[in-house]
Design brief:
CATH architecture: Orthogonal Bundle
InterPro entries: ABC_BtuC-like, ABC_TroCD
Structural class: mainly alpha
Membrane topology: Multi-pass membrane protein
Strand content: under 5%
CATH superfamily: ABC transporter involved in vitamin B12 uptake, BtuC
Keywords: Membrane, Transmembrane, Transmembrane helix, Transport
Subcellular location: Cell membrane; Membrane
Shape: globular
CATH topology: ABC transporter involved in vitamin B12 uptake, BtuC
Protein name: Metal ABC transporter permease
Largest sheet: none
Length: 276
């Protein structure tokens, strides 16, 4: 039975925690109209992992250093730790250029035996996680979840009305940097599940569906995490049942289906932070 197989148990452990983190982070990305930031950091994940592979170190090191470092850089370039599209676009193009460079270095300096590593970075390898890798991913994603819950209240205030929050003494700029660092960490750990090319779907789709189904912030936050977890489970189940279906495709197919259903059956709700 598939459920008793170690590879599926590892994927379920890591995937559940990663999905919860992505759902929580994604809610605030949508609320703060910062989805483009998540898109940019997904490409940073690709570049960071390839850089680590090119120099012969664990790609996870490159993932976290690059995504968190660039996320904080975006905060420096933005107002009150909240980068605008111009800053993100410039960093985005620079990172893509670096990605091409490191891809060339990696493919020309490493043997063909390691060729699958680059594909894993792009499309994820959640069924290939070892016990230690699954536990590490689950712990990191769990810490991201705890951090989001801790800062949820002031971050929600700052996201809805930044000026009033600042006037009330909320450390808006510090919260902006903290949130960006959490987005970076989430992007890095989620790369193992769905790959750097598809992270945005896991971040945006559950949150977008949740905001169309309820206008209560905390209910939407919980719903976003819950939907992400269910979509992760559905994708893993589909892939294990139909081996020709990659897990990343199954996960994102489920996320897209849920989002489409929410658009059809749910009233259109404008995120509080989107009307800027």
């Amino acid at each position: 039975m598939t459920l008793t197989q170690p590879f599926f148990q590892h994927a379920l452990l890591a995937g559940t925690a990663i999905a919860a983190a992505a759902g929580l982070i994604g809610y605030f990305l949508v609320l703060r109209a910062q989805v483009f930031t998540g898109d940019a950091l997904s490409h940073v994940a690709f570049t960071g992992a390839l850089a680590a592979l090119a120099i012969g170190v664990d790609p996870r090191l490159g993932l976290f250093v690059a995504t968190i470092g660039v996320a904080l850089l975006l905060g420096v370039l933005g107002r009150r730790g909240r980068p605008d599209d111009v800053a993100i676009g410039n960093v985005f193009s620079w990172i893509l250029g670096l990605g091409v460079f490191f891809l060339t270095v990696y493919t020309t300096s490493r043997s063909a035996v390691n060729g699958n590593a680059g594909v894993s970075v792009l499309f994820g390898s959640i069924f290939g996680l070892s016990t230690s890798q699954a536990v590490t991913a689950a712990v990191i994603a769990g810490l991201v979840c705890v951090a989001v819950v801790i800062v949820a209240r002031p971050l929600l205030f700052a996201s809805i009305d930044e000026a009033v929050a600042a006037a009330r003494g909320v450390p808006v700029r510090l919260l902006g940097f903290a949130f960006l660092a959490l987005v970076g960490a989430c992007a890095a750990v989620a790369t193992q599940a769905v790959g750097s090319l598809l992270i945005l779907g896991l971040l945006a789709a559950p949150a977008g569906a949740a905001q169309r189904l309820t206008d209560r912030p905390y209910r939407a936050l919980a719903l976003s995490a819950g939907l992400a977890i269910l979509e992760m489970w559905a994708g893993l189940a589909l892939s294990s049942t139909v081996p020709k279906v990659p897990p990343s495709f199954g996960i994102l197919a489920a996320a897209t289906a849920v989002f489409a259903t929410a658009v059809i059956v749910g009233p259109r709700r404008m995120p509080a932070g989107a009307a800027r």
